[in-house]
């Protein structure tokens, strides 16, 4: 399942930096060609990777990411490349030379584990900086082609689309009466995509053998897990790789196409599909055996993936107590909060798990370990959590969750101020500690985004 932290940094590649006019024109022409000729197979793509405007833009995108100084297996960070003799120009010259000679070989992907909301660990692959640059150059070239094919139900990792768009579509479907939901969970999606099926799907649009070969090399790059020898994976595209979201999207695109085909449930069940990467819900007026059979046969039989039966659920959201959690939001059929009552309505707000994750982040950034840090720096770190969270959860009915989070941040900062010294912390006369926290710069409710 897609994590909220993934969504925070899921801007499409060209949305991160200014794209040079000639490269923007190239991307536009590729997208137009793909849109006008859905069966056209692109045969001259690899040469675009040798263009300096493509490589320079790719490097700028990698440098703009928050993980720019997270090294791969070679231990090299972006700052080290910039400060080295020859700098980034030397790196790009080496990469271009190797690509031109068809001698480029990806290095192993470093595997790390990050804690999920449920306490379990999620594997993340970290390519080297040079591999990130090449993958980004590939993405700059391939993204407009495949994005032209993707259907409107697909919202993840696409230019001009966002998780909030998917949330609004789910909300609209509920209001339209599509209240029976198949809430799917694909088990270990990024690590389980079959390479042969993935490549067959890519070949429907790409006939350039050099580009396909380079994609295969990245798919087959070994994974360095701890101190053991690198291991080649039988399938999957490691989550964390720059090109992984596009490849993963292109694979589930075949599920989207089957769903909306004349023989699919969008026709015979009038069902609706909303997908963000590997998170998707199927919404209908009734989820019967035939609809369930289609989803499971397509996902598991045709695509070779595995549904997590423990987490996959069929919901009837008009039932008392039923709720759908999707992309960090919770959807439920709620009683009116007006005085004197009123009609029920579809309430959309941050899920309890999402609110807990935000509180945990604020709690960590105001813990005793940061008593050495200047108060303005502590407040800045807390505000960065608040702004990002409040911006993302601005849809639906956010007021209660926003108020609760900012009040929690106040309490935590007051507690932090009191523990910084053996002497009691004293705000200015006539000012409460809670108000003083905002006077010091803590985000106030009226200043919060949304």
Mean pLDDT: 91
Using the CA coordinates, give the radius of gyration.
Answer: 24 Å
Report the uncertain regions: none
Number of strands: 10
Explain how this protein is built.
This protein is an alpha+beta fold and 450 residues long. Helix content is 46%, strand content 11%. The protein is built from 17 helices and ten strands. It has helices spanning 4-8, 21-36, 52-64, 78-83, 87-100, 129-149, 163-175, 189-192, 195-203, 209-219, 244-260, 265-268, 289-302, 352-365, 375-392, 399-419, 433-439, and strands spanning 109-115, 121-126, 180-183, 223-225, 272-276, 279-284, 313-316, 324-326, 329-334, 345-350. The strands form three sheets. A four-stranded antiparallel sheet has the order 5-6-3-7, with helices on one face. Strand 5 (272-276) and strand 6 form a beta hairpin. The radius of gyration is 24 Å and the shape is globular.
């Amino acid at each position: 399942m897609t994590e909220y932290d993934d969504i925070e940094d899921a801007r499409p590649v060209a949305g991160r930096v200014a794209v040079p006019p000639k490269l923007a024109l190239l991307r536009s022409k590729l997208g137009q060609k793909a849109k006008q000729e859905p069966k056209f197979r692109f045969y001259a793509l690899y040469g675009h990777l040798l263009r300096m405007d493509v490589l320079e833009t790719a490097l700028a995108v990698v440098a703009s990411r928050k993980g720019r100084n997270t090294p791969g297996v070679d231990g090299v960070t972006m700052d080290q490349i910039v400060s080295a003799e020859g700098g980034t120009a030397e790196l790009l010259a080496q990469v271009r030379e190797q690509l031109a000679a068809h001698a480029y070989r990806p290095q192993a992907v470093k595997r790390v584990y990050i804690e999920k909301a449920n306490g379990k660990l999620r594997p993340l692959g970290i390519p080297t900086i040079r591999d990130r640059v090449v993958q980004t150059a590939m993405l700059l070239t391939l993204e407009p082609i495949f994005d032209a094919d993707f259907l409107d139900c697909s919202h993840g990792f696409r230019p001009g689309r966002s998780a909030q768009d998917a949330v609004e579509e789910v909300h609209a479907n509920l209001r339209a009466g599509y209240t029976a939901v198949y809430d799917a969970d694909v088990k270990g999606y990024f690590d389980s995509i079959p390479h042969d099926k993935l490549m067959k799907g890519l070949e429907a649009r790409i006939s350039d053998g050099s580009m396909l070969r380079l994609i295969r090399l990245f798919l087959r790059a070994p994974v360095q897990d701890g101190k053991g020898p690198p291991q080649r994976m039988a399938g999957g595209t490691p989550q964390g790789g720059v090109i992984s979201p596009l490849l993963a999207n292109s694979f589930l695109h075949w599920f989207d196409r089957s769903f909306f085909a004349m023989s699919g449930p969008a026709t015979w069940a009038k069902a609706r599909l909303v997908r963000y990467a590997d998170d998707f819900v199927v919404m209908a007026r009734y989820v019967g055996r035939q609809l369930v059979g289609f989803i499971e046969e397509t996902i598991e039989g045709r695509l070779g993936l595995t549904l997590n039966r423990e987490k996959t659920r069929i919901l009837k959201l008009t039932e008392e107590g039923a709720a759908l959690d999707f992309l960090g939001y919770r959807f439920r059929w709620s009683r009116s909060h007006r005085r004197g009552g009123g009609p029920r309505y579809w309430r959309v707000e941050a899920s309890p798990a999402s609110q807990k994750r935000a509180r945990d982040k604020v709690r960590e950034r105001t813990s005793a370990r940061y008593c050495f840090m200047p108060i303005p720096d502590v407040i800045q770190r807390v505000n960065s959590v608040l702004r990002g969270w409040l911006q993302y959860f601005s849809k639906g009915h956010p007021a209660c969750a926003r108020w609760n989070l900012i009040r929690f941040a106040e309490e935590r900062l007051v507690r932090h101020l009191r523990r910084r010294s053996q002497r009691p912390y004293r705000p200015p006369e006539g000012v409460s500690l809670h108000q003083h926290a905002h006077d010091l710069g803590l985000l106030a409710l009226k200043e919060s985004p949304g």
